[in-house]
Design a protein that fits this description.
The complex is a heterotrimer of chains A (376), B (450) and C (469).
Chain A lengths: L12 E5 L5 H20 L4 E2 L2 E2 L12 E8 L3 H11 L9 H16 L12 E9 L9 E13 L2 E12 L10 E10 L22 H5 L15 H5 L7 H9 L5 H4 L7 E5 L3 H9 L9 H5 L10 H12 L7 E7 L7 E10 L2 E7 L6 E9 L1
Parallel strand pairs in A: 1-4
Antiparallel strand pairs in A: 2-3, 4-6, 5-8, 5-10, 6-7, 7-8, 9-11, 10-13, 11-12, 12-13
Helix pairs in contact in A: 2-8
Chain B lengths: L3 H5 L3 H10 L21 E5 L4 H13 L4 E2 L8 E7 L10 H14 E11 L8 H20 L5 E7 L8 H11 L10 E4 L18 E5 L4 H12 L3 E6 L4 H11 L2 E4 L7 H13 L4 E4 L14 H25 L7 E5 L3 H4 L5 H21 L5 E7 L5 H4 L3 H9 L9 H12 L10 E4 L8
Chain C lengths: L37 E8 L3 E2 L9 H16 L8 E5 L10 H7 L9 E3 L6 H14 L5 E8 L10 H12 L3 H9 L22 H11 L4 H20 L25 H6 L2 E3 L9 E2 L7 E11 H6 L6 E10 L12 H13 L8 E4 L4 H12 L1 H6 L21 H4 L6 H18 L11 E8 L3 E9 L1
Parallel strand pairs in C: 3-4, 3-5, 10-11
Antiparallel strand pairs in C: 1-8, 1-9, 2-8, 5-8, 6-7, 9-12, 11-12
Classes of the chains: A alpha+beta (376), B alpha/beta (450), C alpha+beta (469).
Chain lengths: 376, 450, 469
């Protein structure tokens, strides 16, 4: 399942960073930059990052750079803590979610660039897709490469995909990465003129979330539409569903998938303590304030702290366990954030050739996330 | 249960005070421990006219037991025991000689915890009146003398039925029992030896080796003490109690290295289950001690049917049924022994205990009629009637009546469960085969009743 | 030491090859590889107390020692060196790392009796019997005491991870500064204790919630559950009244019988109880405190031996421990219900022994919940399930309710996790001995068998066959 570089043919300038940046610093930087970008974007100006651009080029308005960090190594203690927190076996094989948190700061650094068109803070994680081609183990020296792509309009703002590739050092930059993640983010309320609104970029994941859902979790009265996340497309990622369907999805005119979501028999239940966000932040480095505490989350428009999306998806992956094998594709679509503390119903079950999972509110039946793990 | 008064009158200032005030001054009784000598000092053997031969035989026996035997009162000599042989006595005139010779030494020369034992014959209708008078006179002497003894000393008598010689196993057994500290709380009693049956054990210290004994109500108190004492004397013990008492029953079983049988003795097949357990686990059944009993006191005017019935059911009806099943089992045939727990209430009666008194008097009657059924197998049945014994049961008696009951005996104190147990152990021993259907009181010569 | 082979009149101690198995056959002859048989001599347990009840201050060691001492008293084993004592607890203090051995040392057994701990969730008790009888069959030991104990009243309380880490750092710290640093990390809430949870670690669901899902899956009604619970109480009460437990139970701490037993309960009373499990799940909530086992404290023991040992000690032989089979289900991925392991183990066990459900005089299925038993029965009667999941040609079979948990089970007695196996094995062995003794002459010397199935956390189950000796 090799994948073409989805950069639209535009050559990327590879920028080598001296090391994996710290996310705390990135968020601090991002906070300031985000404020500027957000103001600019919301008023419809094209002044991004303090310098105007006439139009978006082949890169779709994204910086034409790929960040590269070489010789990244996992820390055994942090790995162990991660494994304990997520319920993974304490194996020397890095869980796919751990590779994500290892590489995530490189992608984040890209998003804090002055010329990145969207504000980092308040960005919503819509979906994530990881392809694990072969195991990455503790002790491997890793090269992490990240670039952005697929900037396009979303019903509720603008979405972008961050592509991160992890190769074991020395396997060659052209080789198929051992691990490849595509994270889809949404900048709420950010509109950038001239963006394609109907056809997505060649993408591994679709836009999946209703932003208003995310920003106002307590409001149940508003109609919800998770948008084009139909699983048939997910199961055949290389074939596109019709544009009509997508448009319909995004237009919110059809019955939403979530309202159609019929809670199945759960196979489990997660009682998520108030400090789950802080604990995951501790092992992932993702100290985004929306996850840390109710006060910090409120400053960004959430009534309480919300669980990291990747925490919930990684727990589902851990629950699949060894049956995922060494090589697999792991996808998730986030529908509605999980407020902390909270208890959610979970189903992780084998369906034909894959494990499907869903996390929902056991009482209201509302979906938080769905995804699957497909062994290769 | 601690006898505070007993402690007070035996220590320090309160001891002096009690002496000055002339208060009753009970002394702590000396009780038997394995390895202790049979008698801790010289034993004086005296005989009446016409009893010299028996007195000589007794003296010879005591010598065989390695005792220091003296035949005359020597000035300044302390005696641990006195045996007064009156078996040949013909006339009350003959009583004065031996009795007075002993009387003169009792105050100064009888050691603390000393023992006085009389050997005599029963007064029966066939006797010449003078002989009967003399024989019955022993009864009065013994009971009165026992009340005069102090310092934990006791007086008891052995009554030898016609045809029973002083060398009969049960006479020897009773003599040893009364001379030793095993009988610490038995006082003022006359025990009849009915026949020369029984056998002298190979080892007087462990007369029950090879015997399998069942003790009911063995979870605590007197029953537990009986189990321990029988085990000490060599028996393999099956302890029985109601299932609800199983926890302490198990502890007793483990202490005596026996087996616990949780069983309600009022169950219709209780006897069969006892026999089955004993025979299957231990190969035989030789001794059954009916100790289980309950109290449901009420004045007769207020007595309800259930209180009456339950006491009768547990204390006597169950024993009758179990005995019947023992006797018909075909297993209870090796010099079997039954000892049943009666009570002074069954002899003297007690206010509020018509039901209990009926059951315990019933026990006395039962053993009298059961023993003859066992003689064919060399067996016997007897009863033990405890007086005031310090147990959980008597601890529940209100303070004042309890204190009165304690002092209302020649020994001026309550007995301990082990005192009852020692008596039971004697009665189930091989030597006691000639004691047939009797009831022996363990009461410190309680002032009530016979 | 290798004891001589038993001249067994009722052989069947040996599993036969499945190929030789013929359903419905009577007791067979031991196969060529058959070791000698192991027998159940008897058992002893303390009455089971409700959590916070009669044993609130008693530790696992206290209770296990009491259960062993009662067994010793019943069978006169004072000072006896038993081949091995194997026992365990599900909820265990770290200080109890040698629980079985410490209990032996505190008991009336010979202090030279070896012992070891084992743990297999709620199957701990029966697994102890399986292991010891296997050792007996191999001639490694002549006698064994299998035990299990659990206290929910004296459950271990752990400190929080942060406090534990700080305390460990503190103990390693050499300098005052390092010590202060270790303590300085602590926050007030770190001092709060972490209560033990019996939730399934991988699903986060409690056992009751898991069963609620299975209950819904098998459409087990509230009424059917209540009826089973009622039968359990009535049968256990009747057995107590008949004196059945007189030689199986020794009171402890003043408790004469199982504290959870409600002889006077009724369908009306059971129907009034509110559902307690599965409330947060999108399934009908039918499981109440009445048709689910309560948290319980208690201990049980089983005396197992070779025939030779039992005979040498003049001890009775109640039953042969014939064979056992464990199973586990993948509940994590929702394939089967957490407590449905028995539905899988029993068909395998019976196939190996050439038996069918009809060959059993009694069937003991641990009543973790009434619905657990009913779901298992439903599964065995379900053709589709038996074909798809058990690989059978049709339905496995039906269990006659008159043969099911005939003297009550965990719903009435309670369920101190590791103690349940011993309770069931000893109870079943005694029932078998009684049934065998009461066989009508017309039935000849037919084998009298018991089937035992005990489900456990983690999707586990251990099942076993006993046969009257």
């Amino acid at each position: 399942m090799g994948r073409a570089e989805p950069s639209g043919g535009r050559p990327l300038v590879e920028v080598a960073l001296p090391g994996v940046p710290g996310l705390g610093g990135l968020y601090a930087r991002g906070l300031a930059a985000s404020a500027r970008k957000a103001v600019g974007a919301r008023v419809g100006a094209l002044g991004i990052g303090g310098r105007a651009r006439g139009a978006f080029g082949a890169g779709g308005g994204l910086p034409d750079v790929a960040y590269l960090v070489r010789d990244v190594r996992a820390d055994a203690e942090r790995l162990t803590e991660y494994q304990h927190l997520l319920g993974e076996s304490a194996s020397d094989v890095l869980p796919a979610g751990f590779v994500h948190v290892l590489a995530f700061p490189v992608a984040t650094a890209l998003m804090t660039r002055a010329d990145f068109p969207l504000p980092l803070l308040g960005m919503v994680h819509l979906a994530n897709r990881v392809e694990q081609r072969r195991p990455v183990t503790l002790g491997d020296t890793l090269d992490v490469r990240a670039h952005a792509r697929g900037l396009r309009a979303h019903r509720s703002g603008t979405q972008v995909e961050l592509v991160t590739e992890v190769r074991v050092s020395g396997t060659g930059a052209d080789s198929v990465p051992a691990w490849r993640g595509v994270s889809t983010y949404l900048a709420r309320g950010v509109r950038i003129a001239g963006l394609d609104t109907s056809t997505p970029d060649v993408s591994d994941v679709s836009d999946v979330s209703d932003v208003s859902d995310v920003s106002d979790v307590s409001d149940d009265a508003r109609s919800r539409d998770r948008g084009g996340s139909d699983t048939s497309r997910e199961r055949a990622p290389t074939s596109h569903v019709s544009d009509e369907a997508r448009v319909g999805d995004r237009g919110g005119s059809d019955t939403s998938r979530r309202s159609a979501f019929e809670p199945p028999l759960p196979t489990g239940q997660w009682r998520l303590a108030a400090d789950v966000g802080r604990r995951y932040a501790g092992v992932s480095g993702d100290v985004n304030p929306i996850h840390l505490s109710a006060p910090t989350a409120r400053t960004l428009g959430f009534p309480r702290a919300i669980a990291h999306g990747m925490y919930t998806a990684s727990r589902a992956l851990a629950t699949v366990g060894a049956a995922r094998t060494d090589a697999f594709t792991w996808s998730v679509e986030f529908a509605k954030p999980v407020l902390l503390p909270g208890t959610v119903a979970v189903r992780v079950a084998e369906e034909r050739d894959r494990f499907e999972y869903a996390v929902w509110n056991g009482r209201s039946g509302k979906l938080h996330l769905t995804g699957d793990v497909v062994p290769h | 249960m601690t006898d505070t008064y007993l402690n007070l009158v035996n220590t320090g200032l309160t001891k002096k005070l009690a002496k000055k005030l002339g208060l009753p001054r009970p002394v702590p009784l000396v009780r038997w421990k394995p390895g202790q000598p049979l008698v801790a000092g010289p034993v004086l053997v005296v005989g009446s006219e016409h009893s010299e031969k028996d007195a000589d035989a007794v003296a010879t026996t005591l010598l065989e037991w390695d005792l220091d035997v003296r035949r005359t009162v020597e000035p300044g000599q302390r005696y641990a025991g006195v045996v007064v042989v009156l078996t040949g006595i013909q006339h009350p005139d003959e009583l004065g000689g031996p009795v007075l010779s002993v009387g003169g030494m009792l105050r100064e020369q009888l050691a603390p915890a000393g023992r006085v034992v009389t050997l005599s014959r029963p007064a029966v209708a066939d006797d010449a009146p003078a002989v009967a008078a003399a024989r019955q006179g022993v009864d009065g002497i013994l009971r009165s003398l026992a009340k005069e003894l102090r310092g934990g000393s006791t007086g008891n008598g052995i009554v030898l039925s016609d045809g029973v010689g002083v060398g009969a196993p049960s006479v020897l057994g009773a003599l040893r029992f009364f001379l030793s500290t095993r009988s610490a709380f038995v006082d003022g009693q006359l025990l009849t030896v009915d026949s020369p049956a029984g056998s002298v054990p190979q080892d007087w210290e462990r007369p029950l080796v090879g015997r399998v004994a069942v003790v009911t109500g063995a979870a605590r108190g007197i029953g537990a003490a009986i189990a321990e004492t029988l085990a000490r004397d060599g028996a393999t013990v099956v302890v029985v109690d109601v299932p609800a008492a199983g926890e302490s029953l198990a502890q007793v079983a483990n202490r005596v290295r026996g087996t616990a049988l949780q069983l309600d003795i009022t169950a219709p097949d209780a006897g069969e289950r006892i026999v089955e357990h004993a025979v299957k686990r231990h190969g035989r059944i030789d001794v059954v001690v009916h100790n289980a009993g309950i109290l449901r006191d009420k004045l007769l005017a207020n007595m309800k049917r259930d209180r009456w019935d339950s006491v009768i059911a547990v204390n006597i009806a169950a024993q009758l049924r179990i005995n019947e099943q023992l006797l018909t089992s075909g297993e209870f045939t090796h010099e079997p022994r039954i000892v049943s727990l009666a009570s002074t209430s069954g002899i003297a009666g007690n206010r509020g205990q018509t039901n209990y008194g009926a059951s315990k008097a019933g026990v006395i009657g039962m053993v009298r009629a059961t023993a003859p059924l066992l003689t064919a197998f060399g067996g016997t049945a007897n009863a033990v009637a405890p007086g005031f014994i310090e147990t959980d049961m008597t601890a529940r008696i209100p303070r004042v009546p309890r204190e009165v009951a304690r002092r209302a005996s020649s020994l001026q104190q309550g007995g301990k469960p082990v005192d009852v147990a020692e008596t039971v152990a004697f009665l189930v021993s091989p030597a006691a085969g000639g004691i047939v259907g009797r009831t022996l009181r363990v009461c410190g010569q309680n002032l009530v009743g016979q | 030491m290798a004891a001589p082979r038993t001249n067994s009149t009722t052989p069947s101690g040996a599993p036969r090859p499945a190929t030789a198995a013929t359903p419905g056959t009577t007791a067979g002859v031991p196969g060529p590889l058959a070791p000698r048989r192991a027998v159940v001599v008897g058992g002893n347990r303390i009455p089971f107390a409700r959590a916070g009840g009669a044993y609130v201050r008693a530790s696992n060691q206290d209770m296990l020692t009491a259960a062993i001492d009662g067994l010793v008293a019943r069978f006169g084993l004072q000072g006896e060196r038993i081949g091995e004592v194997a026992a365990g607890a599900v909820l265990k203090h770290s200080r109890d790392f040698n629980l079985a051995r410490e209990s032996v040392l505190g008991s009336a057994l010979s202090p030279e009796t070896p012992a070891y701990d084992l743990q297999q969730a709620c199957a701990t008790g029966i697994e102890a019997v399986v292991q010891l009888t296997n050792k007996i069959r191999l001639g490694q030991i002549e006698s064994g005491i299998a035990g299990g104990v659990d206290s929910t009243s004296d459950a271990p309380i752990a400190v929080s991870d942060r406090l534990r880490r700080a305390l460990l750092d503190l103990s390693r710290a050499r300098t005052t500064g390092a010590k202060l640093a270790a303590v300085a990390k602590l926050r007030p809430k770190d001092l709060a204790p972490a209560a033990p949870r019996t939730n399934e670690p991988r699903t986060g669901l409690s056992m009751g919630e898991h069963q609620a899902l299975t209950t819904a899956q098998w459409n087990i009604t509230r009424e059917a559950q209540d009826e089973l619970a009622l039968a359990s109480h009535q049968r256990l009460a009747a057995a107590y009244d008949a004196g059945f437990f007189d030689d199986l139970v020794t009171p402890f701490r003043g408790l004469p019988k199982d504290q959870n037993l409600r002889a006077d309960t009724s369908l009306e009373k059971l129907a009034k109880l509110r559902p307690t499990f599965g409330l947060g799940l999108s399934t009908p909530a039918t499981m109440t405190a009445g048709n689910s086992t309560p948290l319980t404290d208690g201990a049980s023991t089983v005396l197992v031996a070779s025939d030779e040992w039992a005979a040498a000690h003049d001890l009775p032989v109640l039953a042969t421990f014939v064979d056992a089979e464990a199973a586990a289900v993948d509940f994590v991925h929702g394939k089967d219900g957490l407590l449905m392991g028995g539905a899988f183990a029993v068909p395998r066990l019976l196939a190996r022994n050439g038996l069918t459900l009809d060959d059993f005089d009694i069937v003991e299925i641990h009543e973790a919940f009434a619905a657990t038993v009913l779901s298992t029965l439903a599964a065995w009667e379900d053709e589709e399930f038996c074909r798809a999941r058990l690989g059978l040609e049709g339905a496995f079979g039906k269990v006659d309710r008159d043969r099911l948990n005939v003297h009550g089970s965990s719903l009435a007695a309670g369920h101190p996790f590791a103690a349940t196996g011993g309770r069931i094995v000893a109870t079943a062995a005694k029932i078998l001995a009684e049934k065998k003794a009461a066989l009508d002459p017309s039935e000849g010397d037919r084998p009298v068998r018991a089937l035992i199935s005990i489900c456990a956390a983690g999707g586990l189950a251990v099942t076993a066959i006993l046969e009257a000796a």
